[in-house]
Amino acid sequence: MSQPAAAASYGQSLLDRVLAGTPRGEDPLTHVAELPARESQFTQWPQWIHPDVVDAMRGNGIPLPWTHQEAAASLAAAGEHVVVATGTASGKSLAYQLPILTALAEDPRATALYLAPTKALGADQIRSTIALTEQAESLATVYPNAFDGDTPTEVRQWVRANSRWIFTNPDMLHIGMLRSHQRWAHFFRNLRYVVIDECHSYRGVFGSNVALVLRRLKRIARRYAADPVFILASATTAAPGAAASRLIGAPCAEVTVDGSPHGPRTVALWEPPLMAEVTGENGAPVRRAAGSEAARIMADLMIEGARTLTFVRSRRGAELTAMGTKRLLAESAPDLTERVAAYRAGYLAEDRRELEAALADGTLLGAATTNALELGVDIAGLDAVVVAGFPGTVASFWQQAGRSGRRGEGSLVVLVARDDPLDTYLVHHPAALLDKPVEATVTDPSNPYVLGPQLLCAAMELPLSDAEVEQFGAVDLLNRLAEQGLIRRRAHGWFVTAESNPHASVDIRGGIGKQVAIVDAESGRMLGTVDGGRAPATAHPGAVHLHQGESFVVDMLDLEEGLALVHAETPEWSTSARETTEIVITSVLEHSEHGPVTVALTEVEVTHQVVGYLRRLPSGEVLDSVELDMPPQRLNTRAVMYTVEPELMERAGITADRFPGSLHAAEHAAIGLLPLVATCDRGDIGGVSTALHQDTGLPTVFVYDGHQGGAGFADRGHAELLRWLRATRDAIGSCECTAGCPSCVQSPKCGNGNDPLDKDGAVRLLTAVVDSLRGAP
Q: What's the pTM value of the predicted model, to 2 decimals?
């Protein structure tokens, strides 16, 4: 038998072992795919690389580069911005190390900047870069170093004065380098390259903010007569060149053909069964939790001797899954209980490194982790990956799946569906996960709620010229900011006023404006912050708040003071807010008619109010509903909407009394499925449905961005409306429940208590809408 076939059978044998442990009568497996192995594609070292750099690579065990590494590196060395978008463990680091180390070896004054979304990823890259620079005398003065929030003050001064390759994150670039660029003049003057690692992470409001931070960086570099080349590394995404161009604001070449090897993989899609003994809201059936199902699968795999990594969606979930695995192993293989652990953000760096080493060398046979192990950390030799709940994007799924089989051997990947419409759709429509191109990254740097504060930061760094303001299309926006006393126009440009403190007021990861501090009332310890717009839904009195494995319950929320007080408590339940929402159309941006269906992209004002919360057990069972009286919140944003003439609904077999439930169920499911076409999380968006909307006079469904000014998600939904609504209909139809459940049409945030909901009516409605969009008679 050939090696690939033998290896592929190993993944199948692991799956057979897991299936053998499934309770009698259950059939959770919905699809199995065998993905073939890929052979290495090597090429020669290009002539332009400095000989010392080639020697350093060879000294670190790299005899030759793969084809995609050489292609991206050569484009960058020739002065072209480039993004390399290839799979996990494809050595993307080499694509930027080659041109940067060559430039630093040839010019003793040249500098480079590396940006990563997480500190852990940056730390890994520093270690590998140091290993290379120690190989050659011409690289001895590079001094690769971190410059981030954890860097002590005295070390920061040394780094600024001596390091020629600085590793940081967009947050520190925004507030620690650009704001005080005069102190970094020598660094910016000699800046040759900027690396943006894992650039697919920059999406939505975070991505839009980072796009503007990068434009500010280019502006400062021009001030010092530098013109750096940008090298971006990404997971496989749709149109990576276009996404990278939006991010850096300049044309960007793309390299997407992966020359690295990987072993064959068996990919299994797994749907936990509905539980007859447990019911949720309104008596709806509930699925067995993905985390507990994943714990059983990991225990079976460990008993089989397979090194296994299980990805879950939350820190608490990682702890619970590891505990559940230990409990199962204690019954059947007690000698393995000490060989499983949780891994997540919040651990000390030395504890994380110890866990990584133990997992890599086999001392640790299993680990449950958040996406903390999705990026960057090099762990080879894993036999299996279990993904407990679709991670939000296809790119993230393949990043996690790519952790298995990295030694070229066979491996198993299991996706366990959560109680969620998108998970339901994917396990019943495997082509959408396994065959489709990955999502396009969504950013919108023109969002005025993001652009305004960023322009204030830019003006504080260097006065804005009229030409720059026009280039941003922001003349009216700056005039409004001038009326607020935040900026003034002078003869030589736009200057911020003494009242303005823009850098401190911008949270580039999504929150703009006042933050709410979460404080332990007993110790006075500050646990973190939450954006003021999200606080009523996440930090309301009675909410369960998790912080680095500790559990707290909120006692008081004061939005005016920006303070939430909590006390330590570990209840057996979790909480989810219930909100009521009203929506008003303020302008129509795009509009199209499809017979009895009208589609539009609109600007809207959304008024929502948290009216209570549900307490749920880990099984999904609802304990009770608690009422709250919270102040209303207003949001100006963008929405995709469609209206349906009542006659169409009646022809589809939906009587007038069923209109509200049918529209409501279709709206809930559509919110759950938008991440299929836009790189967003369900929490980034909201929706409203009504049988008679005041602005349209018709049955109407809205799905809107949950960020001021919009984040680009509604725009993406509008562009992909037909595919999105067809998938929504199919997800509802694929669910085996009779009247609706959290896997199809129920929403955990519904302010109406998921009532009324009409599952059959939603399928009929969406079928009629899809047919109209396709132009069917």
A: 0.83
